[in-house]
Each structure stands twice: as C-alpha cells, then as structure tokens.
Amino acid sequence: MEMKRLLSILVLLASLNAAAFAWPPAQAEHPKEETSVIDRKIEVFQHGVRPEWKYQAPQQDTFIVMHPKIVRDDAPLYVVLHSAGHDVFSCVNCTKTVGNHDIYRSPDDHFALYLDCRKNKGDWWWGGMHRGDKELMRKNSGGETKPVERRVMATVAWAIKHYKIDPNRVYLSGNSMGGSGTLGIGLRHGEVFAAIKANVPAGVEHAFQRMFLSPKKIPNGVVFPDPPICIDYSGHNDRWSDGHDLFSRAMNDRNYAFLCYWGPFGHANNSANIKKSNDLIDSFDWLNVRKDQAYPVFANASCNSKLPWPDHLDSKEAGQINAFFRWNNLKDTAEILEMSLFLISASNLDTKFKIPTVATTDVTLRRLQHFKLKPGAGFKWEFGSAKGEGKVDELGLITIPSLKITATPATFSIRGNF
Length: 418
Fold this sequence. Notes:
Blueprint: H1 2-14, E1 26-28, E2 42-47, E3 61-66, E4 77-81, H2 88-94, E5 111-115, H3 134-139, H4 147-162, E6 170-175, H5 177-186, E7 195-199, H6 205-211, E8 229-235, H7 244-253, E9 258-263, H8 271-277, E10 295-299, E11 319-321, E12 325-332, E13 336-343, E14 358-366, E15 378-383, E16 386-391, E17 398-406, E18 410-416
Parallel strand pairs: 4-5, 4-6, 6-7, 7-8, 8-9
Antiparallel strand pairs: 1-2, 2-3, 3-5, 9-11, 10-14, 12-13, 13-18, 14-17, 15-16, 15-18
C-alpha cells in the first residue's frame, strides 16, 4: 500500500512541472487513495510563491478545498492547519474516520480549506517553537510576519473570493503544530477570522511573539484589529502545553476573548476521549460567531478554575476559563450598544462540571460595529439594576469592572455621555 501511495504521488508531481505554477493556484489531479474521503467534492490546487511573501527560494505548495454537501453562495469557511505528523493529503484523509483528529472535520454546510506546510523544509506554522527548543526560539523570535503566514492569509483571501464565502464567517482551526499556528497566525488576523480553535497547541510561544504578549509590549504605532474569539484546549500533562499559565494571564490582561479547557488528556486528538476528561471542549458554539458583530470579553472571572500550570501538572482535575458565559447581541447603533449577558444554565449544558448560578467578571467590549467612542470619551452604562459611568481607555476600549452575571439574562447597555 505504501509503494502504491508513493507511486501515485510521484506520478502526480511529475505531471505538474513545479516551475510552471505561480499564482493564482492551478487545479490538479489528486491520487484517489489519498483523499478517498467522503461524500463531498474535493479539489486539489498547486501554486508557487509570490514575491511579497518573501520566501528565500522558490517552492511549490498544495492546498485542498472540500465543498459543502449543498453548495451555496455565502457559505462559511473552515480553515485547517495540520499537525507535524501530517501533510495536507493525510490531514484530509483523517476526516473520513470519527476520532481521528476530529478538529480537522468541517461541518457539512461549510467549505473547508486545508493548507500544507510539510513539503518545504523550514516552512512550518512555527509549530515546535517551544522553550525546550532553543534554536527554534531564536530563529522564530520577534513579531515579524513570516512567509508561511503571508501564504496562509493570501490563500484564505483567494478562497473567500473564489468560492463566494461569507466574509464574516471564516474560522481557523488546528491540531498540535497546527494549533500553535492557529494561535500565532489567527490571533493577529481578527480582520479575517471570526473565531479560532486550537486543539492541544504545540507551544504558545508563537502567539506570544506575534501578539507581543507580556512581558513584551505592542510597538508604538502598531494597531491590531480586535482579535478573533479564541478557544484553546490542552492537556496539562502534555509537555507541549507548558506556559499556558502565562498565556492565559496575558490574554486576560490584554482583554482578549479567551475560552480555555484543560484536563489530564495528554496530547490527544480524539474528541470523545478528551471529553471523558473535560466535556466542555465543544460546548461553545464558536462556528456561529460572526466577524460583523460585537462581542464581550470576560476577564478576572470568579468562576474560573485554578490553573494546574506550572506546579500541579500531575493533577487529575479538569478545568476551564470563561466556559459558562454567554451573550446575545441586541443593538449596535451610533447612539447605543445593547447586549444580553448571562451564564448558561444546567438545563442547556450537560456537563460533569458544576455550573455557577452567579459570577463576577470584568467585561470589555470589542468589535463594535457602529457604536464607537474616542479614547477619553465618557459613557454611561446599565446592567440590570446596576448603573454607572466610565471613560474609554487609551486603546479605545470600554471596560466595566466587577459585573455580577447570573443565569437570568440581563441587558447590558452603553450610551455616550454626550
């Protein structure tokens, strides 16, 4: 079987003439046994490099597009970054088997874009950038965009246009090395991704570098778009999860939307097995987050679990950060912003965790569409029977400290103090 697979790949490569491919991507034949997936249409594309990606040498890359079962305009897009143990073909092939890297599997009503970083040496999504690997730490330090990130974002932009994707419903996911890439690439591109999800990311250092997280500071004059809502689940007994204490603290202090789940499930990729330890990993409906809607960031919440990193890696307990908060958008106009804030109830979430009925948290608003105030401007807020006044901070963010949120939805409203 391995020989047959090798011959198929060699025939494919020989038929393509690598030097002929630049950009836009060209559709190619694909070995059927490599992607004998499924009851969904598969397209394989190949291309060379663009000068603005700043690769040091020419290379040829492959990506795969999986169509939804029912094709329509304005479908969402599910983008996948594979792990170090896969290439783009084996990544897609995983999707035919439940339990085999489940995060690779896109919903039936989404287009899916699978990218590759295995073929060309040194072109990984910064996966493996870990405090235990000093050479990669040195090589990949700094906040500069790498060629692979430019390639990823150009390919996503091409797919959005080519397949008439809903630009407000583009999502990024990845496993292991691809999880590291999901955090490092995805967080920086809130102008494209509505939400991102990382399964056992192989290191958080990529995200620290790209986002200039503490103790670094965002350079003067650099402005990030509001980042995507970020979901991360990691086994605290997995050595690749080291540093999640620093990462969660940095995300909290920067007021970035972060949902984190952990447990003693190691470097796992089978969702059913992970849920035996932490059944919350799929509890938040991240694939219905929209880029054209405001969202609240919850920070310093009283209902967060105690982190096992770095001193309790042998703990048998599972935990969460911000797992139980929910919201509904009500109004976003030039005059007022309104959203409903609440804790999910036990009747709506089947879990081993004890769901709180009340929690205190700071709330910061991001991705405001129409309601926008300048730094230093005053505002008035109401939340249920509570009310107060505040000022927009120097970054243009509106934050209300110590809101008391319960399972009963209450309207949170902000008006300019005109």
